[in-house]
Each structure stands twice: as C-alpha cells, then as structure tokens.
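G., the chain you wanted modeled:
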Amino acid sequence: MTKSVIDIKDVSFRYEREWVLEQINLSVHKGDFLGLVGPNGSGKSTLLKLILGLIKPQTGEISLFHESIAKFKDWNRIGFVSQKANSFNSGFPATVFEVVASGLTGKLGLFRVLKDQHRKLIMETIDAVGMGDFVRRNIGELSGGQQQRVFIARSLVSKPDILILDEPTVGVDERNVRSFYDMLVQLNQEQGITLILVTHDIGTMTDKVTHVACLNKILHFHGDVGEFEKFNSDDLSAVYNHDVHAILHDHDYEQEGAKI
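Predicted structure as tokens:
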C-alpha cells in the first residue's frame, strides 16, 4: 500500500450561508492519477483551493504529506496549472524557455542568474512535455494545447511530487486532447508524479486516470476507475441533477452504458 500524500477528513466549506462542500473524506496516494469530476458549481474549484491552502475549511482537517496544512511550508512539492484562458495573456513577450524558467523563481529567487545545471533541468523538462522543438518560440505563437504543455513544464521544473490541473484542456483543440492526456499518463507512469485532474471530459479521461472522485457538494464516489466504469446513466444523472449519457473508453474500444 502506497503512502497517502493528501488526506482530507470531514471537510466542509461554505461561502456565507451556502455550504459548497459537506463532510468530504478523501485520500490521494503517491502515484495516483485522480480524475475529479462533477457538474458546474459542485465544489471542485473550492476543493482545489482548500488543498492549495488558499482558503480554510469551516470543519475538518487537511494534511499534506502527513503534516497539517496549517503547518505545511514546502509548497514547492505541489505544482498547479490553472485554465490557460483565465490566467495568461497570449501577447506576453516570452519564449518557451523563459516561461518554463520562471517556474524556478520560488527556489532560486527573482534575480538569481541561471547556472548550467538549471538550464539543463529546464531543457529536460521542456523535452519531457514534448516541446523541445519550440524552446525559442514565443509563447503567444503556440496553439492552446502547446501552451498548456509549456505551463505544465513550468510547474514541473521545480520537481513537485504532486501536480494539480484545473480543466487544462479548456481551449485545447479537440483533436489534440487525447495526445495531451497521453502526455499526462507518461508523466504519471514514468516520473511517478501524483496527478489530480479536474475535468468535464469524463469519456476521454477514463482510460487515462487510475482513480475517480465524483463530487457534487458531497463525495458521491471515490475509487479506482474500474469501479467507476460500473456506474450507469442513472447513477451519474443523480450526481449531475440532469439526464447524463457518456462514453467511457476502455483503452482499445468504446463501451456504451454508464457514461457522460
């Protein structure tokens, strides 16, 4: 049994009088690739903010690497990639290398000169996300999917143990979404990075992730992807509060049934 890296126990959170999350219990283990799904307004973004220490729960406890989040200081161990459309000005004059290098600022400081070992690390990280051929290209010249790969490299260059991605395929060309997920699987399996992926794209991600958490204020399901694929349309419709039909992919074929 692998060690847990995130433990959420009896966590509830509300904005003013409205409860957004109620009695959430969830553990993420080292090496997991967790898909976090649920309808709009289900509390997914709030849960991420809690894990990142940006807000505090009204009830319950959160631990990171078995340390209370209130005492946790080593935030370089957690990388975060938000939706590109909400966080980046595509006209910003920076190359791929410069954007990824900015991910080392937290470790090196703002005005430290990059040494050869840092430049080597930056290039290795850029290669790891398949962007080695674009290292001198201006970030604004890239497609949405390419930009997201660069943003992931920026988060990876500081060598985090956990990478959290909030709907990273927003704005990514549909034909490139599957290759984008393939890249995440490679990072998870070859580098051992624990991934948490927030997505609406259940049909595409189910043959990529190892575990699924289905959230709508309460945690309706948390388990391995095989168990989640046993959900039927009625189960998912109860979570989403409307009729749901999905296609869950089982690697080499598509399987009709419990699906979104």
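The longest strand covers residues 4-15.

Shout if anything looks off.
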